[in-house]
Amino acid sequence: MNYARIWLASARYSITRTLMFRGDFAVWSLVELFWMTTNLVTITVIYDHTSGIANWSKYEMILLVGTAMLIQRFLMGFFWSSIFEMGRNVRSGNFDFFLAQPGNVMFMATTRKIDPDGFVNSLVALAVVVYAAHRLHLHPGVGDCLLYALMVGCGLVIHYSVLVLSVSMVFWITNAQGVEGGYFTLTEFSRLPKQAFGLVTGLIFVWGLPAVVVSNVPASLLLHGFEPRWAVWLAAVAAGWFALAVFVFHRGLRRYTSASS
Amino acid sequence: MFYFLNKYRHAFLVGLQGNLVYRWNFAARGLFSLFHLTAIFILWGAAFQGTPTIGGFGLGATMTYFIALLVLQFFISAFNEDYQISEDIRNGLINQFLLKPINYFGYRLSVFAAARLVSGALVLIPLAVALPFLHSYLTWPHEGWRLALGFPAVVLSALVQFSIAYCFGLLTFWLLEIQGFVILSMAVEAVLGGQMFPLDLLPAPVFHAVKYLPFYYQMYFPAAIFTGRIDLADTESGLCLELAWVLGLLALTELLWRRGLRRHTAVGG
To answer: How far is B198 from chain A, CA to nearest CA, in Å?
Structure first.
């Protein structure tokens, strides 16, 4: 309950700050919109020259990409700024600020700021999903929509964990620039249908790393209905990667030696 | 002349040392780029399942294009030069350059060259490791003129990349925060620079229009020369346009620098 109050206070602060820099808010909203457009243009151009990608039609792919974007926009909205700054704060010693607070360090460091532009663009991503579903003549029920939301939530946990894991490397290598890119590299796979993966790449990216299930499972729910096996797998992957992120973060924390680290 | 250039040689060497400190970051970036390449292989491999050619090129030629693009990216792309210039201006570090007989553009260009030398060399390591898996896809054209004209195109592309980053950095004279604009431009560059797909896959009128933009010359143009996606006539006319863009962008950097300095206030010692 206390943490919810802390988070609400941080959210209020972030929104007030955003309102102070409205031009900045507009620019960052455009940034995310442009990147989403980039992905959609790519799909459109490829489908101008081919009829299918791993037997997925154009609008099935757009639904998949829309789902991947939706999860990523939520991550951008809720956590990106805080986790991104964490890397720089560890390097500069400003991370002391979070250690001095009476609460869980990982919670404090990764939830301090929210980015309303991420939320604005999550509406755009959701519109992409709805548009693709409309073009595919899909009519999901309320239960399907709730399950979809739940799976998107699991996806958010996975993205959060992967990003925390990437940035936590800063405790060992001092400068996480470039390493943060690991997160973006991994999310590239979430825009691909799992049928496109071969044996080895499937073992790595579908079963080993959480890159593919994160978007494929919710998208498949809308396209083909509920598959309990995949839903359980998604939930297990979310729990497992979150536990790993917590473990690595706290291991890294032991190495932190303030401004001189 | 050599004495004049000597200070930039030192800036280059200091830049080399500075970037070697972060060699693990570049190495990690190089390693992640292999994952990026894997994602491209999977996507385009699946796209080619139903058709032998896309845009007149087979799977091998398309993969060769993306591999060439990756190598070029590490050798000529501006990674965070705009951010460094912005920080120099915001924190007042630029003041030291105003008092010394050194050209800030020349200094930054020397550091940029050093940084790309390090990152370019480091990306070759993971690529060499991946070569046994990649070599069956590589299909290079054999015309000699592609090398003769491709390397000047690479040098000019590096200048286009650096000049654009430099201009964005100089915007800090007017704006407090430029990162939003930089990442916004990165999204545009990703599409119009051919990083997402070869530009020749665009509808013909769009492709023709894109040739006149500087983004075309950031990555696509040299990669297309080396991988056989454009012919000699297009390469020659492209080189002329690329040179025009370089000169235009250099003029813009000078204009922004002069105008920006008029607004700049140096405080403290």
So the answer is: 10
